[in-house]
Amino acid sequence: MTEQAIFARLQAEGLRLTEPRRQVVQMIVALGRPFSAEELHHALQAANRPVGRATVFRTIDRLVAIGVLARVHHPSGVHRYLLRGTEHRHHIVCVQCGTVAEFSGCNVDALGAAVVAQTHFRVDGHWLELFGLCARCQQEHHLT
């Protein structure tokens, strides 16, 4: 997703394009990889863009709420974020280094139908995240 597309989405949601918010979005696009809120804040500081920590966290929350960012859960409790694409995707997270990879093609339809039958809920969505060691961490620990 481009900066301009994100700016348009923010405006469509009735959110102002303040300069700090613009800088946060620009840095997210420039990073081009999954990041934590702290990593984003540090990247902004290193680039001499003095955006407050609270502004970074609030902007991330708003971008998640409007579907621009996906929140990736990590066993450590530190969330990571990445720009969402247009396809339904899931994530696998390295528990050692935090690397996140996307994958498509989950088959939870049968499970969803069973849950609906048992609970009589209406399923509105789901997320699937797997955890393990990436190839680099496996190699570093001689686990391949």
End-to-end C-alpha gap = 35 Å
Order of helices and strands: HHHHEEEEHEH
Mean pLDDT over the residues: 86
- Work out the number of β strands: 5
The CATH superfamily of the largest domain is Winged helix-like DNA-binding domain superfamily/Winged helix DNA-binding domain
Helical percent range? Answer: 40-55%
Tell me the count of domains. Answer: 2
Strand content: 5-15%
Name the CATH class of the largest domain.
Answer: Mainly Alpha
The tally of helices reads 6
Shape: globular
The name of the CATH topology of the largest domain is: Arc Repressor Mutant, subunit A
Low-confidence segments, given as residue ranges, are none
Strand count, sense and barrel status of the largest sheet are: 3 strands, mixed
